[in-house]
Amino acid sequence: MSEVLIRHEPEAAERPHDRFEELVARAQRQPPVVTAVVHPCDQASLEGALEAMRLKLILPILVGPALRIQQTAAQCELDLSGVELVDAEHSHDAARKGVEQVRLGRAEALMKGSLHTDELMSAVVARDTGLRTARRISHCFIMDVPGHPEPLVITDAAVNIAPDLKDKVDIVQNAIDMVHALGAAEVRVAILSALETVNPTIPSTVEAAALCKMADRGQITGAVLDGPLALDNAISPEAAAIKKIASPVAGRANVLVVPDLEAGNMLAKSLSFLAGADAAGIVLGARVPIILTSRADAEITRLASCAVASLLAAARRSAPSAAIH
In which domain, by residue range, is 178 found? Predict the structure, then answer.
C-alpha cells in the first residue's frame, strides 16, 4: 500500500476552494461522525482533528499514547477539553485499538494520524480482528481542480498496486457508491487507458471493455460507464468530439478509473503539482470510511476528507441495507 503524499504548491493554497467548501458545508448539515483518530501525535494530525470537531464534521476519539497526545496539545496550545482519549502503547497498538473502537460500535469512521498508512491498513485488513467486508478495499482521491466544472474522483491510486478485473469491479462500485453519497446527480465513470479502442496487446483496454459490459448486465450498478478512454477523451468534450466518441461519459467523466496504482499516483500528483488541485482522500470497502491524510495536506483538504467520511456515514445511516462502504 502506498503512502499518501499529495502535496500542494504555495500558489494552490491561495486560490478559492469553492468545491471543497461546498462539500464541507453539506457535511455540516449532518450530525458529526464519531471518528477514531489513530495516533494523532503531531501538530498537523491533532490540529486537523480538533478543527474538524470545531466545524462539527467529526466527534473525535483520540487513540494513541495519551501522554504524547497531551504533550503535543500543550506544545501547540490546543484544547483537549471534553475530547475522549484511548491510551495505546505505540502506533501499532493505536491502530489495533482504533479498529477496535469501530468493532465495538463506538466509532463510525477511522482517521489516520501520525503513523504510516501501512500500519493503519494492516489493522484494518487483519483477517479476524479487522474491518473487512465482501468488497475489495480501495482508495479514492476527490480532486478539486481549478477550472474544472466539478470534482474529479481518481481510483485507485493508493491501495491496490496492480488490480485485476475482479478487483476493479469493486474499485468501480466503491467509487460509484461514494459519489452518490456526496450528492452527485449522475455518476459518469471513465475506464482509462492509453487509447480509446480495444487492443488485445494492452490488457487495460480489454478490462475496460469487460467492465462496461458488466455494467450493461447489472454486475456494476448506479452509473454509466465507458472505456477504454484516454484521459483527454474522458475529461475534454473537444477531444472526445475530435475522436468522434459519442457517449454520456466521454468528455464529461466525474470518476476516472486508472489501470494501476502507478498511473493513478502520477495522474493525481500531476493535477496537484501542475494544475494546483487539492486532493481529499478516503478509503472505501471496509466497514467504515477511513480518512487518509498526509502531514503535507492543506487544512481545507483535511476538512474535505472529513466531510466525505461524514457524508458516507450519513448515507449508511439513511440506507442501512445498502452496500455503501
Answer: 10-187+254-318
